[in-house]
Amino acid sequence: MTAALVLYRASGTPVSTPFHPGALGASDPFAAVREIAWQGVGGMSAGRLRVEGSLDIARFPHQETLVVVQGELRIEAEGAAPLVIKPDNGVVIATGAALRITATQPTLAMFCAADCPHPVQPGVFPLVAEANFKPSANSLPKEILLGEVPTCRSDNVIDESSIGCKIGTWDSTPYHRIVRAHPVNEFMHILDGGVRFAEPDGSVVSVERGDAVFVPLGAAIGWESSARVAKYYVVQTVAAEGGK
């Protein structure tokens, strides 16, 4: 298995990452339409959903980030204005949310989900590219860089400390980094620019605007970008030994 698992390519090129049908527990509302590419200890998973029609969900069973790449989702949650999620937009659904999800046309969404029994931030939260960026708290150490130190910004929509998970939008000036063990589980949907992920065997996985990728904790991988990169991210710092 490669270190960078490409989940979707906006160009329409088929991905080599294997997916398998599966449910995230007995009460998974997407059990019939979920295709899983990665699961690891700690309850995190990533893959894709093919949705059409309506689902009424009395209590969402886990935390899930959805990024629409084709079609459209309408999210109606109790106590909130409806959200319409179009391609390159996303939503975070917290454990316990009561909502209706409607797709009036065949819709493809990438997902990253995690067990979160007691969310600090209950509700439903949109992800948007035009985020309220602030300087990132964690700067890249100089010893891993092969060039200038980049300027990185982020906007955490979710900071779920109970499971070591942060979700939001990030951007950075270009930079080049050595191959090293990835310090987190990370889902990324590229909003702008492109990234070349170097792997230990010398191969390179390239992703561009509109693509989605997952990098497991501990995967040996490098980073090289030549222009601004922006992305939605889900990161999990809780140890997640192994994966499949």
From TrEMBL:
> What sections of the sequence does the record tag as coiled-coil?
none
Q: Which residue intervals define the domain (S)-ureidoglycine aminohydrolase cupin in the entry?
A: 167-233
Q: What is this protein called?
A: (S)-ureidoglycine aminohydrolase cupin domain-containing protein
